[in-house]
Amino acid sequence: MVATTGAQLLPNAAVTNVRTRLLPLTTILTPNISEARLLLENAGANITPEIKNVKDLVQLASLLQPMGPKYVLVKGGHMPFDKDLNVPQQATEQKYVVDVLHTDDGTTFFITEFSYSKNTHGTGCSLASAIASNLALGSSVPDAVENACRYIEAGIKTSADLGHGSGPINHFHSVGMVRDPSYLFPFTTPDILALI
């Protein structure tokens, strides 16, 4: 619904349809911060003007969840936090990425160490696909989200710089796990280039 650049990809009428017709049917909603805000603004909700800390992510998730989804995962990848889980004053203070999973039963935090990479193209779609794949394998929603977050983290950390601009994550990082589950990262950055 909202691109990484902040551009709204759906007209307001379509956002209304997503909110009123799809959210009530949704098991897990996975908006980034901008998408969460867009859905809430579309519903006329009173939300915090700007994100200052992780509590603001919890607020977004808790306001979205009554709209229908059983679970809401607000993805924090676009807004790394400092060591105290506040928005840092300087880029050098970026320490953690926090994804917030909210349901009627409470809130769970998935905290990942922030690592700068230009290779984050498609992470939101990849995360949602990884969650769906884990659910299809029989995982609970919290376990599916945790596994998916680790998958994306490994994909970013082992990605290779391809071309110019924002590149893809490394979706092949765990291929070796099929043969040896203790072998989490089978490719170093140069090795994956041999496969392309």
What this model shows, in words?
With 196 residues, this protein is α+β, with helices and mostly antiparallel strands. The protein is built from six helices and four strands, in the order αβααβββααα. A four-stranded mixed beta sheet has the order 1-2-3-4, sandwiched between helices. The longest helix has 17 residues, at 141-157. Residues 185-196 have low confidence and may be disordered.
How are the secondary structure elements laid out?
Blueprint: H1 12-22, E1 28-29, H2 33-42, H3 54-64, E2 71-74, E3 96-103, E4 106-113, H4 123-136, H5 141-157, H6 189-193
Parallel strand pairs: 1-2
Antiparallel strand pairs: 2-3, 3-4
Helix pairs in contact: 2-3, 4-5
Mean pLDDT score, rounded?
A: 87
- The dominant shape is globular
The amount of beta strand, in percent, is 5-15%
SS content category: alpha+beta
Global Rg = 17 Å
Question: Count of helices?
Answer: 6
Pick out the low-confidence regions.
Answer: 185-196
Give the biggest beta sheet.
4 strands, mixed
Strand order of the biggest β-sheet = 1-2-3-4
The span between the termini is 31 Å
Q: Care to count the β-strands?
A: 4
Portion of residues within helices: 25-40%
- From N to C, what is the helix and strand string? HEHHEEEHHH
Q: What kind of assembly state do the chains in view correspond to?
A: single chain
